[in-house]
Design goal:
Elements lengths: L2 H9 L2 H19 L18 H22 L4 H4 L7 H15 L6 H44 L2 H5 L15
Length: 174
Amino acid sequence: MSEAFERLAATLDRRFWIAAIGGTIVALILLGVPSAVIPNPQFIRMTPTEPFNVVVWLASAPLAGLLLATYLSKRGAAATDIHADAGAGRATLGGVAAYLAIGCPICNKIVVLALGVSGALNVFAPLQPLIGASSVALLAGTLAWRLRMRARGCARCAAGSAGGPQPFSLGDSG
């Protein structure tokens, strides 16, 4: 095993896996219920669920759960690392894109307002697989980046963790 992989494996403790499993379950529900991929009486799809909707849903939920775990299960120097919340915007964008990709195109009020019902079906619906693929790629890339950061850590933050994180200033020489 490489040294980087060993460092990463050492950070993936029980707390991380519990947060990842819990986050995956929450993501499955938060993405599946309002988009009616999970049939329920509160939300009804006006168009049938397509196979790519299910694929994007099942691919994005575990990625979102693992990403959530990288934010929730911080320990030691990582808990005070000023870079610990990096990537949150990409994770959020990936989750929103996943929701847009798996949802019913004519049930999305914003899309219908912008494009009309026929535009939602003829313009937005054909783009949903591309949005879904982009979402999964963004979530996977952000997860890989967060795990790499987690394994590497921040030497400046680890060195300064006794006194808290050391913010960047223009006077720093590196």
